[in-house]
Amino acid sequence: MNVEQNIPLEGLVKQVGLCLSNQLSGVLNLPFMCKYFAKKLSPYEAIQKLDRNYFSFSMLSETQSPVLHVLDTQVLYRLTNRILGGEGIAEPRSDHPLFTFSERIIGQKIIGWVADAFNKNNLHLQLDKIANGPRYFHLFLPDEKVWQFAFELYMGSQLAGMYFLCIDRNLEHCGELEQS
């Protein structure tokens, strides 16, 4: 891989947000925006302690460096409602599974778009696992420092929820990405 083709980690993460904004705006026929707002190096356990269910998936690079994606379930519920002809409202949940068939399909599309955004930037990721929250992923030691990136997700002008990326801090040093 050519180092000249690589971009800094933060730039890559912003491109993932732009890709999601572009894809979802087209699918929803509604302004959808991923607003990047935070980058920090912190212990992995901080993201594992998120206290509610999230649509979470891990991906592995060619060198087996993990990338954890954490999407607020409310965003997935609202996206699915909108795509199926609703107003984009997260309807109350009670007796059914955490994700319906339609929600899982939308989640898989999001995974594909995220993978495409990384792949276009020469960081080839493959899906490793899907679960109902970051507490089910043991990709790093709890006190290990990892890069955490956060986005606010908007449908129209309304905040729909959050999206987090948790990336191995060594990924930017292993030749897959330039140091940011």
Short description:
With 180 residues, this protein is α+β, with helices and mostly antiparallel strands. Helices cover 31% and strands 30% of the residues.
Can you tell me about this structure?
This protein is an alpha+beta fold. The protein has helices at 9-28, 45-48, 73-83, 101-120, and strands spanning 32-43, 54-60, 66-72, 126-131, 145-155, 158-168. A hairpin with a 5-residue loop joins strand 2 (54-60) and strand 3 (66-72). The model is unreliable at 1-6 and 173-180 (pLDDT under 50). The protein is globular and about 45 Å long. The longest helix has 20 residues, at 9-28. It has a 6-stranded antiparallel sheet. The protein is built from 4 helices and 6 strands. Helix content is 31%, strand content 30%.
Topology:
Blueprint: H1 9-28, E1 32-43, H2 45-48, E2 54-60, E3 66-72, H3 73-83, H4 101-120, E4 126-131, E5 145-155, E6 158-168
Antiparallel strand pairs: 1-5, 2-3, 2-4, 3-6, 5-6
Helix pairs in contact: 1-4, 3-4
Relevant terms:
4 helices; 6 strands; disordered N terminus; alpha+beta; 30% strand
**Overall shape:** globular
Output the number of helix runs. Answer: 4
Helix content: 25-40%
**Poorly predicted parts:** 1-6, 173-180
| Average pLDDT over all residues | 80
| Rg on CA atoms, Å | 16 Å
Strand content: 25-35%
Secondary structure class reads alpha+beta
Largest sheet: 6 strands, antiparallel
Number of DSSP-assigned strands: 6
Side by side, the strands of the main sheet go: 1-5-6-3-2-4
- Quote the distance from N terminus to C terminus: 18 Å
Order of helices and strands: HEHEEHHEEE
